[in-house]
Design brief:
It is a single chain. The chain has 424 residues and is mostly beta strands. The chain has a domain of 132 residues. Helices cover 0% and strands 48% of the residues. The chain has a four-stranded antiparallel beta sheet, with no helix packed on it. A four-stranded antiparallel beta sheet has the order 2-3-4-5, with no helix packed on it. It has a four-stranded antiparallel beta sheet with strand order 6-7-8-9, with no helix packed on it. The protein is globular, with a radius of gyration of 21 Å.
Length: 424
Amino acid sequence: MRKRRIITCVAAASLAFMAGCAPSFLNLSRSSLESRNPTVAFDSADNAVIAWSEGSTFEVDPSEILVKYWNGDAWVPLQGSAHGGGISNNSNTVSRNPALAVGGSLNLVVAWEDSPPGAAAAIYLKKWDGTSWSEFPTGSSSTSAAGYGVSMSKLHCESPVLLMDGSGNPMVLWSANASTPGIFGTRWDGAAWVNIPGADSDGRLSPPSVDATAGSAALNRAGHVALAYQVLSDGVHYISVQEWTGSAWKDYDLSPWAPGSLGTGQKPLLAMANGTTPVVAWEDDRSGLSMVYVAYWDTGTNVWKPYGPSLAVSVNKGSTHAWQPALALDSAGRPVVAWKESWSEGTPSLVHSLAHARRWNGTAWESITAVSHDQVSNTLNGEVFDIAIALDSQDVPIVVWGEGSFDPKTATGSPDDIQLFWPQ
């Protein structure tokens, strides 16, 4: 049973967080280093694990993957996972975009994208067995966190998605810039890395003729993989969803240009409600403003349907844009969604953004903050990015995000840091 935390409420102008439900702010960055790309998961004891990337200048300078674990009393590293080189420990590479999977009590696997100087990015992976971090063999003399990693390809591989099967073995998927970009993957069968069922001989899961990127994945009740990804066609993105049935791919008809469909969408997040029903969240600018939409596949009518009267879960105010959705399902298979909402104002222009979250209660969308607004961040001067969400066994959400600030008038700002909202 997780020990309850005492959360310190931080006053913020124009925001009225309910006492005991304010965000808990984590100072995870080290001195002036930038912290980004957080991801979060719970173990079987309902203790949270957070992984993120940290470096001096993203996209250019080296960065590392760090991990902290809530042990019931404090956020602690796992054998050096939150200092020095973290778990990546590659001082001359850009390590970013970590993905987490947890099975049981801290049977933890972390995958990330690793870019050596002058070389294409590969997908690396390490596991925590309760006492130490280790790598998986990948054949020859290489391992899962060296050389070409688990992607085992000279292609540029990015944005890993990590799943764990019923036996506690990892399955990792990623986007790769093949001649036609696509979604690829591999799984650990207990002895070796092998192709995921439904993949071609090169490990590709998306159709070879489709320009597919920004993949998301979930396992169905039978343990087979389902995918959502954005497709580029005639200069426009739309969302495609497919599921491996055990013998063939099942495509969910999206009719991309029909009203109320998943057309013109980007950055999909996929979950499988009760292991049988696809649920997708994505960002879409069909209205002129970017908004966050959520839909589920109605197995009775074989069409996509919204939760409630509208596909939109975000409530854009004025000229605000909603971006970067994060998706989790509660124990009843109902969606809980977090996203970033941003706007600009002033001269020179200053960008503001806030993290928001809502849950579907069975009849309507409601705030997770126990008050009327759905904001989970509480500073109007910050820039929010890289939002992630997870639910514990009692359906209590944790939302994590990166946040920094920059004032164009003074050309000053604060280093990007990881913050969280965890009501208890």
